[in-house]
Please model this.
Amino acid sequence: MIRNIEKRTVHIPGLGKKILESIIPVVEHESLLGDLDEIYISYRNERGPVLAIVWLWIQVLKFFFTFISDIIYRSAAMLKNYITVSIRNLRKNKFFSLINVTGLSAGIASCILILLYVQNELSYDSFHENADRIYRIANTIEMPGQPNAEMATTPHVVGPMFKDEFPEVVNYTRFSGYRSRRVVRYEDNVYNEGRFLFADSSLFNVFSFELVSGDERTALTAPNSVVISMEIAEKYFGDEEPLGKVLTVHSSDQFTVTGVIRNLPQNSYIRPDFIGSYSTLGLTTTGNTAMDLLSNMSYQTFCLLQNEEAEEPLRGKLSEFVARNMAPILDPLGASYEYHLQPLLDIHLYSDYQYELEATSDISYVYLFTGIGVLILMIACLNYMNLSTARSAKRAKEVGMRKVVGARRQHLIWQFFGESFVVVVISVIAGLLIVYIALPQFNSIAQKQLTLSFLSNPALLAGTAGLLLLITFIGGSYPALFLSAFRPVQVIKGVLQKGTKGSLIRIVLVSFQFTVTIALIAGTLIVYKQLDYLQNKRLGYSKDQIIWIRLRNSETRQNYEMVKERLLQHPEIIKTAASGNLPLGQSSDTIHHPGGKPENFVIHTTIHLVDEDFIDLYEMDIVKGRSFSKQFRTDRELGAIVNETAVKMYGWDDNPVGKDLEYYTGINSKNSKKVIGVVRDYHFRSLHEPISPLVMYMSMNFGGEDLRFNLISAKINSDNIPEIITYMENLWNEIDQEYPLEYGFVDDRYDSLYRSEERLGSLFSLFTAFAIMIGCLGLLGLASYTSEQRTKEIGIRKSLGATTPGIVNLLIREFIKLVIAANVVAWPLCYFLMKNWLQNFAYRTDMGIWIFVLSAVLALLVGLLTISYQSIKAALCNPVNSLRYE
Amino acid sequence: MSITRKEELILLSVLNLQENAYLIGIHDHLEEVTGKKVSLTSVHLPLSRLEKAGLIESYFGEATAVRGGRRKKIYKITKDGINELNAHKKINDALWGDYSKLVSR
Model:
């Protein structure tokens, strides 16, 4: 019966019914729909079906809006309440709020800085459209008895040969290195340019260098054409049209500007200011494939592969290529040779070969800084959690009251997360402000051009939002989940006043903080100790108070004796010397054959071209024989001085003085010298590398050309450097009208070798400072909380006769225990990490236990300073005040 | 819980209407008594609040053809509801007590 009736009289339209059902509690579905039906029917009977339907729909909408406004009203009221309570709480506890916000914002700031830094490191070269198909050809030569030569540069024939032989290679482009600086002139604008290289015209097909003017097909085809960056165009030509202008390089070479490229971003491995056309170099081949593939190895070759999958098959073919083409030279020497395919995207972080275009970084730094970022964030979060936990006893009463008046657990959870959110939002804003202010300084330390731009950097936006949610969650979770579970009766009775659970968490948090702090302090100290070691290591020569001058044109090179004498006329220039190189820096090298050894016994040896004053000026020690001297006419032609390592490697057990020494001036031609002395080993390369064999000549012939001295070193005896430089400039104007004076300090050049380590040191100490600051803020909060908690205890102790020092001792004893415990973890952790880092250096300082002790003492001192103020204040407090209200 | 004027009216209607105290019954009763248009939703919302607060309770009545075979949700005042009304009445009586005397004079 009922069923039939039901079918006949379902009146409410389907959609309206659905809407109602979704907004009305399930238990009311039946009755309410019934109610509506009932009215609907009487309405229809009175006014007809159309009006009845309209009425019904109006009812549905009314119910809907009532429902919505009810939700909004209720949640808005609650939200308003949460925010009011949060702000009240923040203001009531100004001290804790300040500590929380400062600590969190410092933590957030360092995390964002690290995020930007790491992101930049990982983004190198990814702007090239074909980035994942571009590979660099690097190579390793292994000769018996010698360290491997691992080079980023290859002979110029490699690119074309690879393209011909391997179908996987679609295109290639080659770069010459930047080599020495070049003097570039346009009318009155003369500058000394360091970023001038040569590249194939295929450059624009392989890489995504954007030409703003010029034709990419022809820009680099003709000899003596040059493509410049926008910055350079501006610098030389101002507003004039750069295309077609002629730049003079080295006083005689003329280059026509054929294109202007957009300035390359800082995160580019290839960042030239000038790109000369490769055809300018006029490179030729000898026709002897093996020789072509093993000589003149000074070009970076980049190949564009068909697709990413082509890498593996190509790799497989390379050893066969070596065996087929190079055996005639490699086999007699017993040498082996290997090509490496390096993805362009990996060069910046993974490559560390000789002759890189730019100093590369290391992926381990990325890991290191990410790790430090995570640790700092953890400290900041833990601090925040710690403080909210510590204050939970106070809040517990509030929770009890709220529950008594009807709050449910979920309301309290929302409230505490809401409070956390308010604090974190304030901290994020403050943190971003810190980043914004600190970024220029940070950029100059890190050598980056990072910007805080949310629009162009979605990762930054996501990272900041992620930080916001993460910290809100972590910081709010303890009070939200733990406090909200309190039973009102217990709380109000005061049962939970001192949770033991809370104090355990606190112990763990404080020890963790100190572990991180001690490890960071020790790490920073070790980095600086190594830097100090590098600066002060006995190098085997003196580098202080020496100015070098570059001789440019052939006339001054010929008359270097005159330049030396003119310089010496200045009373404060006490010594001068001419050379082809400085003790540190670029020098030539070739294969040597030591006398008295079998014909095929050859050793790769570095050559320093020096005059007879060089050894004296740089205060190098002669351990056997004698130095070069004007009194021995034959020294210039025949004299050779070898270093101790060379003596060892050559296998000259008896006195080497008087031995013959032959050096290869080409593949088959040799010259002969006679050893006149042995110089004590000096570090002519960075301390990352061990000392290798070295010879010093006063003259040498290489590839049919006599090499000349092109540097003058001047030892000065004064701090009045500007005056000496002025003297040099005046002198220079007299003797060389063609080139401007180019000079520098020998110790600067030495320092520049360790820039990346210095950078590491500065960044390390920056973040250590952040970590210490955040840690201290946390401690400060905790200490003031503890002494506040124990006010009455202290009052009673004092009235029973405890002394002030006794009470201070009581308050800090626990803290000292925690710091000592932290050392147990921090020391070995730091030891292993830093040992790993020190492996990068051939010459390294020892870590020494005192560094760890010092870090522990420092951390302890900073911690003590932080908490002692609060503790002493508590201990000095008059017991009458603390006990009066009882 | 303190109740509003509207809730007081509804509570009294529930008491008066007895078996007929379902949404439409109450609605019609209120329109009749006040002589004003009353919207369904403005009855429904206070009803559910009063029920949540435990001042009224509900049970399902019989299904009728005119309601599409759906049952009525009939409200009934609880002991708390009576107490609440008593409290209100006390206040009202106290304030209204001498009204007629005072006005007629």
User: Anything to note?
Assistant: Chain A has a mean pLDDT of 84. Chain A has four domains: 2-83, 131-350, 363-535+754-883, 546-750. Residues 49-92 of chain A form the longest helix (44 residues).
